[in-house]
Amino acid sequence: MHELVQNIFAFLVDLGYIGIALALMIEIIPSEIVLAYAGYLVSREEISFVGAVIAGTIGGTIAQLFLYWMGYYGGRPFLDKYGKYLLIKKKHLDLSEQWFNKYGPGVIFTARFIPVVRHAISIPAGIAKMSWKKFTFYTTCAIIPWSIFFIFLGERLGSHWQEIDEIARPYLRPVIIAAVVVTVIYIAVQIYRRKRR
């Protein structure tokens, strides 16, 4: 299975911008790996930095829209039954649904930077019939800095791009902390508004 994934990855990334977008859409390989490799291609001047960010943003957003529409049209029963084939664990779905129901649509942005929740947060947004325009806006706003960050690191690492997990970890901690802080502030504002009503 691992070898099959590697072969799919190698085939896709050889397609340039389209391959980067497709690799992010199918989500077999973590986005960090795909974007870091895109950065490596930038370092070799095979693609441009701006083009890689655009491809990463398009691919990442469409991948989340797939999950959103699954939640919108399939609902929770569908995802409980078939989510495992999409590598979506029930506990991740439970936590994401709890976050969305408790904290509202604004969490779509901040949750993108928080491990565990970020992979499945699109699904409860679909189940709750959140406006797809608002969902797309929040998602795109979160995916742009995520793409820039990993493409930049991949470009700096060059041929050592596969070390992205180890290199990115110290940088991701403050990002995750900031996302949690922003989420807490957002929650506090929501609670304050509810009390005033």
From TrEMBL:
Assigned keywords, A-Z: Membrane, Transmembrane, Transmembrane helix
Pfam families: VTT_dom
Family matches, as PANTHER family: ALKALINE PHOSPHATASE LIKE PROTEIN, UNDECAPRENYL PHOSPHATE TRANSPORTER A
Transmembrane parts of this sequence: 7-29, 49-69, 135-154, 174-192
Keyword Transmembrane: yes
KW Membrane (keyword) present: yes
Protein name (database record): Membrane protein DedA, SNARE-associated domain
Organism: Parageobacillus thermantarcticus
Gene Ontology CC entries for this record: plasma membrane
Family in the record: Belongs to the DedA family.
VTT domain span: 29-155
